[in-house]
Specification:
The protein is mainly α. The chain has helices at 2-21, 27-31, 34-49, 58-80, 96-123, 127-146, 150-168, 175-206, 211-219, 227-244, 253-259, 262-268, 271-286, 292-311, 317-337, 345-373, 388-391, 393-407, 413-427, 431-457, 471-489, 492-506, 516-522; strands at 85-87, 92-94. The chain has one domain (28-510). Helix content is 75%, strand content 1%.
Length: 523
């Protein structure tokens, strides 16, 4: 006892000295994670308010709180942009790149919440945990886009993943939904292990898990790149390839998409993918990871081809759009392979624009599917859509518009998304990959047009009810239509900002003292 007291007495001055030496992070650091803080506060608020409300009438109240949280987070993103630089001991970086993806994933979450108002009531799903998990998952997605420390990226990835694992199984009365959640969790855990093992090997090869330090260690001096770094790059690509559903790590996608709630599929197919692509851009380009070119080239070609060929034989609309999502991941990976020496930011900016355009049209498509599916998601086969053009002309027209954008028809965001990716590939002399992209786009047009033909040129079989579109779901669909149209008619502003953000990503550092005005002037 005396020895213990003596040791405590000796250690107490040291502890006091450490406490006095501790300096809390400056306010600017907290401003650089302001959207994450706002989303976390509203997520906790939803969970606190949920038990106080009647379960039958809580959907709109909790949904409104969650929607206000996402809108507040969007506003705080603009405020965050006024504080460019690094935060929390060089673990987080705020620049145009991270602001772009913050805005994108939060906007996706807002539209998904809007489209869920009616869905939760029809499916009799408790709203509190649902909206809370969407907000907490969005926190992880946002943090993935701004983290420049691989360990922090892993933590953010897990925050996002655990939320989506649970959300995928939210239709508890349906065995397919529970199966999709279990498959997603098991395969996702393996993929996460690959990514974490790659981080460990990268630390062994470079002595750091900071992206800037890794880049300097791998490409400074005349020393050859360690073989361990190539293995680390491959393992991290496996982990992130699972998240973006690139082949051959795509096998979970159709089963999970088929069983998960339709609005959650809209979130899963866009938000986590956008965040994972942001991480890929940082790891592959900013960290200058070795051996990335042929890895990405092969995955892009395989992903496009397998996604489109498998989609040709699908009769379930959710499985068809799942394979479509795989194919579009392949198109996007073409931009990752496109890195011309004269304009290294070209491929990155094309990838960023494609991510935004795909998010707008795919969330809109799943919003239509979510409304049409009705209670228990009974109506999700292609035959169910027969005659929709006559029963509900507006709903069929909006769905057709999203499908035309997925094909890449002019005046839609999908057209310019594919055009810029194809242009980047040709400027990088990736003629073979560009030809594969064009051929796959032609194949993809077939199964999209098949849905349109079913809606307008086939007679209805059996009675499939089409209820009026509620205000919230109609607003979500209208937002997606306007954004898809805007990106197809006036893509210049978004593409310019994506190019500006890509140039920042390719630069070595972001000046922490730069103001928003000076950044705008540089643009």
């Amino acid at each position: 006892m005396t020895t213990t007291m003596t040791a405590f007495a000796y250690s107490l001055p040291g502890l006091l000295a450490q406490a006095q030496a501790f300096q809390p992070p400056p306010i600017a650091d907290y401003m650089r994670i302001l959207p994450e803080l706002v989303l976390s506060v509203f997520g906790m608020l939803v969970m606190i308010v949920d038990p106080l409300l009647d379960e039958e009438n809580s959907h709109q109240s909790l949904g409104t709180i969650a929607l206000i949280g996402t809108l507040a987070a969007l506003g705080s993103t603009f405020w965050m942009a006024q504080y460019p630089g690094t935060a929390f001991s060089n673990m987080v970086r705020v620049e145009g790149f991270s602001v772009f993806f913050h805005f994108l994933v939060i906007a996706i979450a807002a539209v998904v919440i809007l489209s869920s108002y009616e869905y939760l009531a029809v499916q009799r799903i408790r709203a509190g945990e649902y909206y809370g998990l969407i907000l907490f998952g969005t926190v992880g997605m946002c943090l993935m886009s701004s983290a420049i420390e691989l360990v922090l990226i892993f933590i953010a990835l897990e925050i996002s993943s655990i939320s989506t694992y649970v959300l995928a199984g939210f239709r508890r009365r349906d065995a397919a939904s529970s199966e999709s959640s279990l498959k997603y969790f098991l395969l996702g855990s393996f993929a996460t292990a690959f990514f974490l093992y790659g981080v460990a090997l990268m630390f062994g090869a470079t002595g750091s898990t900071n992206i800037d330090a890794i880049s300097q260690a791998l490409h400074s001096g005349d020393a050859p790149v360690p073989v361990l770094a190539y293995v680390a790059t491959a393992l991290m690509f496996v982990g992130l390839g699972f998240k973006v559903a690139s082949a051959p790590f795509h096998v979970w996608t159709p089963d999970v998409y088929e069983g998960a709630p339709a609005p959650i599929v809209a979130l899963m197919s866009t938000g986590p993918k956008a965040a994972a692509f942001a991480v890929l851009l940082r790891v592959m380009f900013e960290a200058n990871a070795p051996g990335r070119f042929w890895l990405i080239w092969a995955s892009a070609a395989l992903t496009m081809t397998l996604g489109n060929l498998c989609a040709l034989v699908q009769d379930n609309i959710k499985r068809l759009l799942a394979y479509s999502s795989i194919a579009h991941a392949g198109y996007l990976l073409v931009a990752f392979a496109a890195m011309p020496a004269a304009q290294p930011e070209l491929g990155a900016s094309a990838a960023m624009f494609y991510t935004a355009a795909y998010a707008a049209m795919n969330v809109g498509a799943f919003a239509v599917v979510s409304h049409f599916a009705n209670a228990g998601e009974k109506y999700v086969t292609l035959e169910d859509y027969a005659g929709l053009g006559r029963k509900s002309p507006v709903l069929a027209a909006t769905f057709t518009f999203f499908l035309m954008s997925l094909i890449g028809i002019p005046i839609t965001g999908g057209f310019f998304a594919k055009f810029y990716v194809l242009s980047a590939a040709l400027k990088s002399n990736l003629v073979g990959l560009a030809i594969i992209l064009v051929l796959n786009s032609a194949v993809g047009a077939y199964y999209y047009l098949r849905i349109i033909v079913m809606m307008y040129m086939r007679e209805q079989r059996g009675e499939v009810p089409v209820t009026p579109v509620p205000v919230a779901a109609g607003l979500a669909i209208a937002v997606c239509v306007l954004l898809t149209l805007y990106l197809g008619v006036l893509p210049g502003r978004v593409l310019d900002y994506a190019a500006y953000s890509a140039r920042q990503l390719m630069s070595d550092t972001v000046a922490p003292t730069a103001s928003a005005g000076s950044l705008a002037a540089e643009r």
